[in-house]
């Protein structure tokens, strides 16, 4: 699909496959990226939460980014995660990623130290001033401990033209709709929840950054693209199939759930880095059985 705005449609929060010895499995990563592109994925999000980024060293993060850029070779846009609860550290990360092949930076609300809304605004102001690449804000209060309000999001959007969107994973549809309605022309909302993606896009979001898309890009992507095209009955039928099983992938943490599914598909080894661990045998069975009807 051909869009002028780089991050529309199905975006996938790319997993990081590991070998049994715990090292990054670049062969498996190649297979995953190629399957995502072949499956109709519109853009990739590299080094997000689903990538187990906090467990990667600085060198490994750079290796993954450079590897994916070279492999993709301009076929689809790439967004790279650069987040920290220290503003100076986030700015320094962004300076490391100023090279060709990146179409945007995803940066999360600072976690753990729980700044005020003014602190969130000032944090992203510094990032916006430092970045030569477009920025997507990432609001995920379930992980960061605070919610970036619609007022703060829109304040940043109106002040900085290089802040071009927000990945909204608050789960608050009233907040998401407030941002959509109040956003300047250059600023778009991207859903951060697979289960709310169809509703968010119907209300004006331009796409999703998906977890389940790692395993089922064709099926989930079809639902996303049908929604964008206004074919809501067809999209709703697919959404209805997903509805009972969305939560299974997050029941014991992300990406533990999606890695269990992808291991069953033969796409990677079911290996995670501590503190993340594989899902329990009982949940693994639920995931395998729950997603069995989806064939790609």
CATH first level: Alpha Beta
CATH superfamily: Aldolase class I
Order of helices and strands: EHEHEHEHEHHEHEHEHHHH
Shape: globular
Low-confidence stretches: none
**Termini, distance in Å?**
20 Å
Q: Could you estimate the helical fraction of the residues in percent?
A: 40-55%
Q: What's the arrangement of strands in the largest beta sheet? A: 1-2-3-4-5-6-7-8
Number of E-state strands: 8
**Proportion of residues in β-strands:** 5-15%
Q: Quickly give the structural class.
A: alpha/beta
| Cα gyration radius (Å) | 18 Å
Tally of contiguous helical segments: 12
CATH fold name: TIM Barrel
Major sheet, described briefly?
Answer: 8 strands, parallel, barrel
* CATH hierarchy: architecture: Alpha-Beta Barrel
User: How many structural units, i.e. domains?
Assistant: 1
Average of the residue pLDDT scores: 96
Key structural traits:
alpha/beta; 8-stranded parallel beta barrel; 296 residues; globular; 8 strands; TIM Barrel
Describe the structure.
It is a single chain. The protein has 296 residues and is an alpha/beta fold. It has one domain (9-243): Aldolase class I (TIM Barrel, Alpha-Beta Barrel), CATH 3.20.20. The chain is built from twelve helices and eight strands. An eight-stranded parallel β-barrel has the order 1-2-3-4-5-6-7-8, surrounded by five helices. Helix 6 packs parallel to helix 7 and helix 11 (256-265) crosses helix 12 (281-290). The radius of gyration is 18 Å and the shape is globular. 46% of the residues are buried. The model has no long low-confidence stretch (mean pLDDT 96).
């Amino acid at each position: 699909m051909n869009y002028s705005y780089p991050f529309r449609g199905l975006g996938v929060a790319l997993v990081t496959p590991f070998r049994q010895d715990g090292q990054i499995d670049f062969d498996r990563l190649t297979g995953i990226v190629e399957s995502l592109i072949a499956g109709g994925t519109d853009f990739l999000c590299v080094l997000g939460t689903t990538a187990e980024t906090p467990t990667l060293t600085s060198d490994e993060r750079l290796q993954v980014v450079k590897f994916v850029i070279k492999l993709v070779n301009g076929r689809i846009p790439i967004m790279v995660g650069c987040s920290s609860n220290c503003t100076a550290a986030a700015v320094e990360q962004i300076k490391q990623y100023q090279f060709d092949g990146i179409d945007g930076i995803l940066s999360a609300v600072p976690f753990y130290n729980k700044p005020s809304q003014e602190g969130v605004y000032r944090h992203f102001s510094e990032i916006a001033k430092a970045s030569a690449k477009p920025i997507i804000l990432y609001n995920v209060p379930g992980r960061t401990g605070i919610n970036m309000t619609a007022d703060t999001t829109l304040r940043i959007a109106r002040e900085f033209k290089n802040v071009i969107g927000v990945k909204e994973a608050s789960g608050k549809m009233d907040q998401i709709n407030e941002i959509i309605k109040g956003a300047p022309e250059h600023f778009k909302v991207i859903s951060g929840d697979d289960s709310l993606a169809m509703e968010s896009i119907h209300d004006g979001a331009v796409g999703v950054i998906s977890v389940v898309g790692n395993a089922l890009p064709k099926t989930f992507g079809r639902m996303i693209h049908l929604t964008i095209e206004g074919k809501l009955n067809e999209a709703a039928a697919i959404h209805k199939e997903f509805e009972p099983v969305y939560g299974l992938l997050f029941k014991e943490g992300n990406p533990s759930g999606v890695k269990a599914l992808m291991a069953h598909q033969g796409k990677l080894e079911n290996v995670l880095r501590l503190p993340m661990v594989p899902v329990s045998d009982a949940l693994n069975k639920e995931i395998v059985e729950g997603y069995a009807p989806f064939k790609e």
